[in-house]
Here is the input.
Amino acid sequence: MKWWQKTIAYELYPKSFLDTAGQGTGTIRGIIEKLDYLSSLGIGAVWMTPVCRSPMVDNGYDIADYTEIDPSYGTMEDMDELFAKAKEHGIRIVMDLVFNHTSDQNPWFLASKQSRNNPYSDWYIWRDAKEDGSAPTNWRGIFGGSAWTWCEKRQQYYLHTFAVQQPDLNWANPEVRRALYKAANFWIDKGVGGFRVDAITYIRKPDVFEDGTPDAEDGSVSIHDMTANTPGILDYLHEFKREVADGHDIFTVAEANGVSADELQYWVGQDGAFDMLFEFSHVNLEFKGIETWCRPDPWELKDLKKALVNSQTATKDNGWYPIFFENHDKPRCVDHFFKAGTDPKKAAKVIGMVLYTLRGTPFLFQGQELGLGNVKWPSIDCYNDISSYGQYDFAIQEGFSEAEAIACVHAFSRDSARTPMQWNGEENAGFTKGKPWLPVHDDYAVMNVEAEEKDPDSVLNWYRQLAAIRQEETVLTEGDFSELMKESNEVFAYARSKGDQKAVILANFSDHEVTVDPDLIKNMQVKISSVKDHAEGVLAPLETVLYISC
Ligand code: NOJ
Here is the structure.
């Protein structure tokens, strides 16, 4: 097995991790200061969301220079020190490659927009207006509004899958691809442990650009439905692998919305372009089609189980599964997977158990180890996230009231995952001595690292215990997966087995007691349970138990 199959990864949101400069935003020195903390969680890889130079319209996912550190985070010397000190801690640093688009302040785009015949003219996706002067197609960007923006100077429109300030690169141009691979190799030379590759399903555009069937009141269609996973994309991805990843002891994990299980073999594994692929079926249960927050569909535990089991089955022989329940784009899991009013501590432990015992590499997201929940700020003006504004406006345009629209923001805003890390009960949760760029969560006085370290029953200590068990019981990293209690709509149950070693995991997502068939746990011993007085043969409400064969 490779090192990254046995480790636990931590997704770190640098802007909200620790500010050592009193400026209200996190710094690289803050990460260096907390390496011992990350080690105490058993972390072997830290995926940092982008820290390259950026105007921060999308908090770093709009890159102005791929090989410079944004001054708000520190310097390249700080970054070099982070690589070196992390290595001493047995931690590899994983960078985020944002290669579908750049910032509109990137010198490549600044040059491209000047004229139709300069060396960078063809580095982005430019098209003429329709005869009536309107945008070339009716595509809607993922953050809302048209996916096209008019450029006076060139008298053309440019395409942006995300915000206006994030123009899409033209991957059909080999010079663009070469420049991107060069940037990735710059970080390989610095010693990265891997790459998370952003929004990669959008890089290949269709040969012909056409209007799609509208899916919204304004006659637009989501760009996702028109450009995601366009045939021919794999040629680019395999080239990326050859030019960047091959021959290095790193891992690659693609953010790849919309890749089906049948296509998986071409994306990951021995003949695939990446080692792992983040797919979103289990965290997008409420969005059967496109992700419009105002129209969530109801779902049940059996839907979540089905999505997770499908991913386990699909990756059994193809690649390796990156397990996650939270990231910087998703709601906090305690609010996402449980009904309102559920005890967040119990809920957090249930998710923690599944995260650390499915087959794959767990990706723990900053703050998840404390059991944090969503923020529910009173008005849209309190939010920072660009997509929250887009989704709010979309809801209003679709006829929802302001109260309904803000309720959707409470449920799905990306800001919930991005509030400052809660280190202690002091002002601003110990995150900054300045004014935090995003308010600290109200619960910080109780839910913070310092307080949870002292409480043996805390979510933080639960994660530490699970990490130690994962280290000790190799069946949890190496064992095969098989589902148990398939029909249950209350309990997610499965076994991991390797030779005569076996583990059984029971996770009761419901708020009532459930009886367990004694045959399932015959000759097994309780290794850990989330309740103090575990009773044999039953699961207490929201109890989760790990059994290991005797
Ligand atoms: C996916 C990233 O995770 C998200 O945060 C970002 O806004 C978009 N890609 C655009 O880069």
